[in-house]
């Protein structure tokens, strides 16, 4: 266990309630508020873009507690008068904001498609897809945008194949899902556009599900349509579940690939290490997940359904709590030298993919895709390097899973 000298120097607790989501100076790194709050105010009050207040939780033990204790409800955020980060549709049936027993029933229906064994059986196909995208990137020539050539099309192709979305339709929904996953102040400013995007995606999926019902195939949407008929899955649950899988199924992995490759190339010795010893890639993936900033935790908002003490602070029934996984993954009480990217880290109980009953359903698939991408890149492009200065990287504001507009690379 690291000593107190490992903890970063922080500013004293501010006199004003900070605004959330926090805005980092460098989106590849955590905002300064994470270290400050973790050290001096680990359960801290913040104000949300809606004007509501919430508690943010930054220490590892407290984040695990909040995400595993049933007294914190995700479903309650949709109830009238509940604090919320963005305006939400009442009665939402999304798996990510369900509580048991509904969450248990819904997750059971689709979890069979994401078992570690079934996903591992996809490895050869994912490797073939990755090689094809890298071939196209190399043919394009340097500099090439990592996101446009690999980090985006690979996860999109994989999740669309799993769901049964026709290849010609894939470009149609990318803008819709980007808008759906906008959070914070940008979401309030784009409320009409987000609502329209949700409507278009719902309409598209409704038509596609009708087609799957008429002519089932071996894909997730066909499985869900059968569950609609056989397992009591309502039409609203069916549509919202499909939207959740489609949106979250590639946004998270696209961001993870982008952040991971950036961090490896930012210090060339890191990439060289994996090139020289690819057997270290699985451990490196876990460390890159811990270290990366692919999600700010905003989607993890919960409502206390009774008074609960968290880290010595009393959270009252009806108050909102946001566990910050990225902050927990830099907790010096759990991780030695947490601000260091240590590709050889062996003791790595990170919670980048969540914790508790809402642990990421697609975690095995995300790990597989990251491993295959890094294996393919170090083999095919051993001299890979960044082709852009940090100061020239631009970001789309408000994305729940932050990624640059582009990440040019050369080899």
TrEMBL record:
What would be one Pfam family of this protein? Answer: p450
> What GO MF annotations does this protein's record show?
heme binding; iron ion binding; monooxygenase activity; oxidoreductase activity, acting on paired donors, with incorporation or reduction of molecular oxygen
Q: Which UniProt keywords apply?
A: Heme, Iron, Metal-binding, Monooxygenase, Oxidoreductase
Q: Region Disordered: which residues?
A: 1-31
Q: Which family does it belong to?
A: Belongs to the cytochrome P450 family.
Protein's name in the database: ORF 10
UniProt source species: Actinomadura hibisca
